UniProtKB/TrEMBL annotation, chain A:
<keyword id="KW-0813">Transport</keyword>
<dbReference type="InterPro" id="IPR050153">
    <property type="entry name" value="Metal_Ion_Import_ABC"/>
</dbReference>
<keyword id="KW-0067">ATP-binding</keyword>
<dbReference type="InterPro" id="IPR003439">
    <property type="entry name" value="ABC_transporter-like_ATP-bd"/>
</dbReference>
<dbReference type="InterPro" id="IPR003593">
    <property type="entry name" value="AAA+_ATPase"/>
</dbReference>
<feature type="domain" description="ABC transporter">
    <location>
        <begin position="6"/>
        <end position="241"/>
    </location>
</feature>
<dbReference type="InterPro" id="IPR027417">
    <property type="entry name" value="P-loop_NTPase"/>
</dbReference>
<dbReference type="InterPro" id="IPR017871">
    <property type="entry name" value="ABC_transporter-like_CS"/>
</dbReference>
<protein>
    <submittedName>
        <fullName>Metal ABC transporter ATP-binding protein</fullName>
    </submittedName>
</protein>
Automatic annotation (TrEMBL), chain B:
<keyword id="KW-1133">Transmembrane helix</keyword>
<comment type="similarity">
    <text>Belongs to the ABC-3 integral membrane protein family.</text>
</comment>
<feature type="transmembrane region" description="Helical">
    <location>
        <begin position="98"/>
        <end position="121"/>
    </location>
</feature>
<keyword id="KW-0813">Transport</keyword>
<dbReference type="InterPro" id="IPR001626">
    <property type="entry name" value="ABC_TroCD"/>
</dbReference>
<feature type="transmembrane region" description="Helical">
    <location>
        <begin position="255"/>
        <end position="271"/>
    </location>
</feature>
<keyword id="KW-0472">Membrane</keyword>
<dbReference type="InterPro" id="IPR037294">
    <property type="entry name" value="ABC_BtuC-like"/>
</dbReference>
<protein>
    <submittedName>
        <fullName>Metal ABC transporter permease</fullName>
    </submittedName>
</protein>
Amino acid sequence: MEAPLIEIKDISFEYEETKALENISMKVEKGDFLAILGPNGSGKSTLLKIMLGLIKPTKGSIKLFGVDSKNFKHREWIGYVSQKSNSFNSGFPATVEEVVAGGLAKKAGLFRRLPKTVDEDVLDALKSVGMEAFLHRSISELSGGQQQRVFIARALVAKPKMLILDEPTVGIDHQNVQAFYDMLAALNREKEITLVMVTHDVDTVTDRISHVACLNQTIHFHGFKEQFQTLSDEERASWYGHSVRKIHHVGGAH
Amino acid sequence: MIDAIFTYEFLQNAFGAGLIIGVIAPLLGVFIVVRRLSLIADALSHVTLAGIAGSLYLSQSVVVFSALNPLFLGIAASVGGSVLIERLRTLYKHYEELAIPIILSAGIGFGAIFISLAQGFSNDLFGYLFGSVSAVSREDLLIVVAIAIVVLAFIVIFFKELFVLSFDDEYAKASGLPAKWIHFMFMIVTALVIAGSMRIVGILLVSSLMTIPVAAAMRVSKSFKQTITLSIIFGEASVIAGLISAFYFDLAPGGTIVVTSILLLLLVLIYKKIAVSVKRGAIA
């Protein structure tokens, strides 16, 4: 049997003596589309950063593709899409092509040039997010949603087995959020890329995902989305801190 | 002018060093500007001043230092300053920018003390502050050549990593790139360029040659590589025009080079404004 792509055991994390995460244990299996839900300050982004090796947990262990994260060498198997507003310098003078090609830096390796197939790889990645027409455009000229698609292409260009996304719809206008999640679902379904995503869009995303993890310092629920959908409003409120109800959008599919 | 360059060694040195600096300062400057580290160049140039002033002072009383090119102590101070800036940025995680005024004022402070102690070397010091056409020795030129080789090798070898790190440092770290080490090496290389450039441009103006050509290039560039190319072209044009005017009018080359780069920036801004107006007019 194939090892889980992520296996977290009893992880805790303290930030300046404040507990951010407590005794987290969970697995992400191949093919999952996992949404990590939780209120602000619940430790969602911290958990993602631990998964990515950006911060070390105070306690516990993490395995990536069956290997202890400290010894894991294939970072290129994991694509990362951060909150656009957090880390991206919006006035950066670069084309979409240059930004996406940057996603091959780790895979190519230190002291080596980008592969000869870089042009095809970049175009393929942009096609999979519907942005091939923007190849030569400046990244700063694009809308928030378009930029986020480019960042997904940058994560896809190295052909990762898993994508980790931290609130990818921040800065995207409401009309485009649904199309954005459809694109992620298609990547999961057609390219068999495992997806782990932190999000606030509980209602919009539940139809596209396979699993849900509810986090508020510790894991309150982790299971199939169908199980999540059977939770009562009271059960959700008990961990979320205030009432969370499924909203039926007029004219929507859910 | 061409005849004079072939005749006088000091002009060969000045133009040789100037042409090299015209490439490496804006080249590294592109990464400094897009990473929003422009003020670090200023802080390091002032630390270099402390090293130079210290060397000039010591050369009056210690025999070893009288034979030593002050540039070496300047380089050592600049590299040391870059390491200290990084340490302070780690220490003040939430106020990283504090490192810059701390190191900058420390550089000026030590520089002022050494200058007061020396009670002399005003001519030498003027050259270091604002650059000099006549003061560049063959040894200075060779130091600049060595620095240029290190800088070019660093940029060529780590170009893709530097690009990713400059664009999105969190992504660079998450991808498993050795972001910390590349940044550390970048700081050392920056310190080297600053120390190497100051003979021509001067300590007080060296950061301008790393930022103004880039500021002009960014207004008209469509891509990162184009930004680099245009920055080098603007940098070289500023150095050549600045050195020639400094030679003919007996002015400090630091001033003429920087004023030329400012004029180029103004021309680019005017061109860009006209181009945008024409485009808008065509659309309307």
